[in-house]
Each structure stands twice: as structure tokens, then as C-alpha cells.
Specification:
Strand content: 35-45%
Distance between the termini: 8 Å
Mean pLDDT: 93
Radius of gyration: 16 Å
Helix content: 25-40%
Order of helices and strands: HHEEEEHEE
Length: 134
């Protein structure tokens, strides 16, 4: 069984629409999609590299049981992305593509928010919390 954050990474990194939009917003292609499990290196997190996506696991241990055995386990994932505040018209496009890619694979969003990044004033942080079952 794959780790939930690896499942989400594969769904996003293998979605050509998402990768293309990241590159279009940035204005150039990259050697790899700027999608990370966990926090990228501090030297990476600059407005020059935006947009990028971060995937983190939200602790949870909810499960579905049958005959006293776990048959399905719920997982929760936070998918954040950072985008330059000058690119806000693309915020909704990227947010929708992420939602559609995950929703089509049985992973549903239950929380969303966006606000100016607390550390880099030129960036907007967009947060989506999702849950699914494995």
C-alpha cells in the first residue's frame, strides 16, 4: 500500500494540465514539476520559483471496520500552493485543477482558504484540506 502523500503526489505530478499551468504561470518549463511532499528547502521558497505545491499528511487514524478488521483507512492531506500576488487571476484555475484531479480519484476537499503569505509578502498561500480512503 502506498503512503497517502505519495498517492496525492502521483495524481498531481502526472496531471499534465496542472504541470502545464505551473509552467505557464512561471513562464518557463522546469526539470521536474514543482510539487513537493513536505516543505521544500528554504532557499527554494522564493517568489521567483512560484508557483509550487506542497503536500503534507494531516494526522488521522479513522478507519472502517468489518468483522473487527480494518478494511479501509481514511487519510487526510493538506495541499498548499504559493502563487505570486501578481498572478492571482490564475489562483482559481490552479485551485480548480487540483480539486478536479483529486475529486476524480475519490479524494474530497473539506476545507479551503487563501491569504497573503506570512513570510513572503509577494506571495499568496492557498490551502486545501482533502480526505480519502485507502
Amino acid at each position: 500500500m502506498s503512503l497517502p502523500e505519495s498517492i496525492i503526489y502521483d495524481l498531481l505530478a502526472n496531471n499534465q494540465q496542472i504541470v502545464d499551468l505551473l509552467n505557464d504561470i512561471r513562464g518557463e518549463p522546469t526539470d521536474f514539476p514543482y510539487i513537493f511532499i513536505g516543505q521544500p528547502n528554504d532557499t527554494f521558497t522564493t517568489s521567483d520559483n512560484a508557483p509550487w505545491i506542497r503536500i503534507t499528511l494531516i494526522p488521522d487514524d479513522t478507519a472502517v471496520y468489518a468483522d473487527d478488521e480494518r478494511v479501509m483507512q481514511k487519510y487526510r492531506i493538506q495541499v498548499d500552493f504559493w502563487i505570486n500576488r501578481t498572478d492571482l487571476p490564475n489562483l482559481e484555475k490552479l485551485e480548480n485543477l487540483i480539486y478536479e484531479a483529486l475529486h476524480a480519484n475519490g479524494v474530497e476537499r473539506y476545507y479551503r482558504n487563501h491569504e497573503p503569505d506570512a513570510d513572503i509578502e509577494t506571495l499568496e498561500m492557498v490551502q486545501g484540506n482533502f480526505e480519502g480512503f485507502v
